[in-house]
């Protein structure tokens, strides 16, 4: 199927295929031939062309900005389209991107934390200046209560308080998640008053590349699929939430904040909201995987793993909040 796609739409890029690090939402394949290398992405969880069009419009605008890092560059097919239907009856879309040289950072390593902060701050500034003329398809995080129609308040409460048999061992973790969901639901309206702009929305160690020779230097930010208009402070909040539980968590967050502040400063209100936005991010991820489970996309073990991990993140955030708030004020103001 992949060879047929390449031969039909990107014949000059056809070559040997190697499976890449496939995420929850997409399949990734690396394609090599003697002249060029590329990356094919197949969107697995939606069939919505508008989502990809918005992502590519943002990438096109960012290509014109003087960025110090690389971003994905879609390769037009022979028909001129940047996305094509997969010919397997699934109606999924496939896209091809030029290959970016670099390496994945170590998951527990913090060598790139400062550089990650720099590039995140730079991206925030660049996205703020993007004259996008399209409405985003993905909702902002603060529209949590409307974002997952298959997970009503009643369903979430029943699932967390009386979990199915296969989730009995996650009872305590589900209680933590439900408490966080209830608490954050009452604070969503106030978040709308914070400065808003385009945000990447899913920056983490799996969506960046570092220099193969200098592991502390971020050279590319990837995967703009969930780019939308949201509160500006959501960008660092998402990244910092990914540092929770790391062996060198405190140092990683400090370095990231130092790097971020070298490019952009936040208001006092934004800084105070970051712990709230971090909880919102963790709750949002829970609802994302709960929806996937309810809709039959994932088996129970996927949600079990996420529930345990996210509850641990919420516990860690509560334990770290005092010093984290001081650190955020010290470095981001």
From TrEMBL:
Coiled coil: none annotated. One of its GO terms (molecular function) is amino acid kinase activity. Residues 22-260 form the Aminoglycoside phosphotransferase domain. InterPro entries: Aminoglycoside_PTrfase, Kinase-like_dom_sf, Pseudomonas-type_ThrB. It comes from the Bacteria. Keywords: Transferase. Belongs to the pseudomonas-type ThrB family. This is Aminoglycoside phosphotransferase.
């Amino acid at each position: 199927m992949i060879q047929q796609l390449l031969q039909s739409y990107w014949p000059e890029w056809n070559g040997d295929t190697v499976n890449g690090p496939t995420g929850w939402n997409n399949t990734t394949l690396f394609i090599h031939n003697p002249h060029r290398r590329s990356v094919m992405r197949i969107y697995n969880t939606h069939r919505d062309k508008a989502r990809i069009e918005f992502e590519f419009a943002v990438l096109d605008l960012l290509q014109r900005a003087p960025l110090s890092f690389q971003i994905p560059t879609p390769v037009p097919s022979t028909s001129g389209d940047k996305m094509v239907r997969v010919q397997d009856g699934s109606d999924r879309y496939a896209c091809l991107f030029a290959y970016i040289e670099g390496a994945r950072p170590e998951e527990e390593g913090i060598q790139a934390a400062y550089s990650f902060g720099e590039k995140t701050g730079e991206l925030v500034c660049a996205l703020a200046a993007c004259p996008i003329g399209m409405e985003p398809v993905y909702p902002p995080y603060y529209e949590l209560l409307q974002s997952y129609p298959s997970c009503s308040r009643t369903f979430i409460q029943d699932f967390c308080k009386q979990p199915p048999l296969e989730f009995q061992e996650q009872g305590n973790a589900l209680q933590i998640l439900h408490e966080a969901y209830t608490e954050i639901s009452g604070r969503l309206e106030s978040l709308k008053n914070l400065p808003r702009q385009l945000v990447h929305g899913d920056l983490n160690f799996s969506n960046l590349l570092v220099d193969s020779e200098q592991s502390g230097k971020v050279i590319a930010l990837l995967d703009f699929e969930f780019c939308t208009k949201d509160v500006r402070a959501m960008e660092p909040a998402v990244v910092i939430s990914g540092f929770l539980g790391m062996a060198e968590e405190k140092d990683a967050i400090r370095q990231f904040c130092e790097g971020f502040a070298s490019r952009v400063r936040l208001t006092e209100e934004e800084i105070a909201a970051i712990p709230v936005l971090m909880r919102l991010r963790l709750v949002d991820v829970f609802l994302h995987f709960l929806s996937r489970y309810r809709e039959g996309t994932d088996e129970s073990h996927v949600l079990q793993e996420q529930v345990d991990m996210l509850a641990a993140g919420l516990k860690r955030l509560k334990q770290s909040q005092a010093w984290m708030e001081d650190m955020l004020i010290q470095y981001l103001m």
